[in-house]
């Protein structure tokens, strides 16, 4: 049934995004009732609202039992895993993020346990999936409506723009992110310690991507305080052998660059700058891990370890690790993702602010200064030795909402780069500290809270008149989900067509390689047609 399909993806995405709750009430208030298309959803644990953050929580198992999803609970790790069709979702108590098909997504409110039931946030995800959500304060009732219900419609886009082929410049960048963290895209966990298998996997992936029309790869060479290349500063990545610090027997970056350039494709070295580990365990880390060598630089936030951006020496250490690659290899670019300060959870850096924050009005201003210093100094370091190497950053797709800044985008995002990651991308663009910017505009043309076309227009205006090139980050991983607009591969083609209206847009990067290779909803054929036959 249609409502069952909608709720399937409500369950699978409800852990992945910020939640906007109903008006806050004391937990002693009357119970909250939930109705789905007129049918009451019953539970032995009533929904409730978390005070202060105003997030409505609902029981996970009651919803999942209506859907036929598989639910597993690991009491030792306090982790719930939900499996439905090709989607695997996991969440851990007290962590403000969830994993969806190995991709990490933030949460404003952590999963909780109430009377032996796992509770998850509701409202925001319901709305972005196209469900109409109504809150009746007097009756304390949440009504979810699917199907033929009235919903807010985005501003119309001319049909000849989004459905008809537009002129395509074959010189535009057509890139793909290749994630190595958690062995998401390359290499496979089954290839640990087997350099020949890893090489074969990379060659096969590259051939497939080029056959789709791609001409650049952005390979994650520093997943988490480590390296996919021989480094004198940080240990070998565990994603090569299963053990951090273990030599894989060859130089993966040298091999990948050679194979990529052999095909006339660009190779951009992608670095995750401040993530030290993907978990809080330290006994599995190599002796030369930054966590063990410089414990005074490390901050634990939501059970993950970060290098503190507020410490100048720590920032210089990261720049030095990046410059190893710049100096040693024939790369086309240095690429950073949006991992600066974590967007959710507590980041305990009061002591660092006390030591380095004199003269700043507040901690947020100081944090943005720290990231600005890092970006500016890294740019100077790269240009001083290889000015031909491009330096670019891929920030979260919304800089600021117009409600918080009159010059921000007409969006209602729950997370913004400026306010949550402390990434002042506008300053980087205006000062020319980056050569290109690739905002992650991971929403569709029909998703009203963060509409694709509005964001492309906003970012185009930001780079206009500067020397900064604009590429757009696309989300093929969302194809086939019930989030608004992702039910047809034509969505990606429509986005590419819309980009042609803005001469500032010089190309696209897709997240990620494995999602393209899965050919969601026939996307490979669409991309071949768009890029190779026009």
Tell me briefly what this model is:
The protein is of the alpha/beta class and 534 residues long.
Structure description:
With 534 residues, the chain is of the alpha/beta class. It has 17 helices and 23 strands. Strand 8 and strand 9 form a beta hairpin. The longest helix is centred in the last third of the chain and has 23 residues. It is globular. The two termini are 40 Å apart. The N terminus is likely disordered.
Produce the secondary structure layout:
Blueprint lengths: L1 H12 L19 E4 L2 E3 L6 E3 L4 E5 H6 L4 E5 L4 E6 L2 E6 L4 E4 L2 E4 L5 E3 L2 E5 L1 H6 L3 E5 L4 E5 L13 H4 L10 E6 L16 H17 L4 E7 L15 H4 L10 H11 L3 E6 L18 H4 L4 E4 L2 E4 L4 H17 L4 E4 L13 H7 L6 H23 L4 E4 L23 H5 L3 H7 L4 E2 L14 H12 L5 E6 L15 H10 L5 E6 L2 H5 L5 H10 L2
Parallel strand pairs: 1-13, 14-15, 14-23, 15-16, 16-19, 19-20, 20-21, 21-22, 22-23
Antiparallel strand pairs: 1-2, 3-4, 4-11, 5-6, 6-7, 7-8, 8-9, 10-11, 12-13, 17-18
Helix pairs in contact: 5-7, 9-11
Instruction: State the end-to-end distance.
Output: 40 Å
Q: Give the fraction of residues assigned to helices.
A: 25-40%
Low-confidence stretches: 1-28, 148-154
Biggest sheet, in brief?
A: 8 strands, parallel, barrel
What coarse outline follows from CA principal-axis ratios? globular
């Amino acid at each position: 049934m249609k409502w069952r399909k909608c709720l399937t993806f409500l369950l699978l995405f409800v852990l992945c995004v910020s939640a906007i709750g109903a008006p806050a009430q004391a937990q002693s208030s009357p119970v909250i009732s939930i109705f789905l298309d007129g049918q009451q959803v019953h539970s032995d644990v009533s929904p409730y609202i978390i005070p202060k953050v105003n997030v409505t929580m609902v029981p996970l198992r009651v919803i999942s039992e209506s859907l036929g999803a598989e639910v597993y609970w690991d009491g030792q790790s306090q982790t719930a895993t939900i499996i439905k069709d090709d989607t695997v979702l996991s969440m851990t108590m007290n962590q403000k993020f969830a994993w969806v098909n190995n991709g990490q997504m933030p949460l404003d409110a952590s999963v909780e346990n109430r009377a032996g039931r796992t509770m998850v946030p509701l409202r925001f995800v319901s709305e972005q999936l196209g469900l109409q959500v109504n809150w009746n304060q007097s009756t304390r009732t949440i009504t979810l409506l699917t199907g033929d219900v009235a919903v807010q419609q985005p501003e119309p886009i001319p049909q000849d723009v989004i459905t008809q082929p537009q002129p395509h410049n074959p010189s535009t960048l057509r890139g793909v992110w290749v994630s190595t963290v958690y062995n998401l895209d390359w290499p496979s966990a089954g290839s640990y310690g087997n350099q020949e298998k890893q090489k074969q996997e990379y060659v096969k992936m590259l051939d497939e991507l080029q056959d789709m029309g791609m001409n650049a790869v952005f390979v994650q060479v520093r997943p988490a305080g480590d390296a996919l290349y021989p480094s004198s500063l940080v240990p070998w990545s565990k994603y090569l052998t299963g053990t951090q610090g273990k030599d894989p027997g060859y130089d993966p970056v040298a091999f990948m660059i050679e194979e990529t350039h052999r095909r006339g494709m660009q190779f951009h070295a992608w670095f995750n700058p401040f993530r030290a580990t993907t978990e809080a365990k330290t006994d599995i880390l190599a002796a030369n891990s930054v966590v063990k060598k410089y414990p005074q630089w490390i901050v634990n936030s939501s059970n993950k370890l970060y290098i503190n951006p507020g410490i100048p020496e720590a920032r210089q250490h990261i720049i030095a690790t990046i410059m190893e690659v710049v100096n040693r290899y024939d790369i086309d670019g240095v690429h950073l993702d949006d991992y600066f300060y974590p967007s959710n959870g507590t980041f305990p850096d009061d002591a660092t602010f006390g030591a380095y924050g004199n003269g700043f009005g507040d901690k947020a201003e100081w944090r943005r200064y720290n990231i600005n210093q890092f970006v500016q100094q890294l740019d100077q370091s790269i240009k001083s030795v290889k000015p031909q190497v491009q330096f670019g950053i891929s920030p979260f797709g919304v800089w600021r909402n117009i409600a918080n800044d009159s010059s921000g985008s007409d969006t209602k995002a729950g997370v913004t780069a400026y306010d949550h990651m402390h990434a002042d991308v506008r300053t980087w663009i205006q000062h020319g500290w980056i050569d290109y910017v690739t905002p992650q505009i991971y929403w569709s043309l029909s998703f009203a809270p963060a509409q694709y076309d509005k964001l492309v227009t906003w970012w185009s205006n930001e780079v206009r008149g500067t020397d900064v090139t604009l590429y757009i980050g696309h989300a093929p991983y969302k194809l086939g989900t019930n989030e608004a607009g992702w039910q047809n591969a034509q969505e990606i083609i429509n986005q590419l067509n819309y980009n042609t209206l803005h001469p500032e847009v010089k190309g696209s990067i897709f997240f990620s390689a494995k999602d393209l290779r899965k050919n969601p909803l026939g996307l490979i054929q669409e991309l071949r047609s768009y890029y190779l036959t026009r």
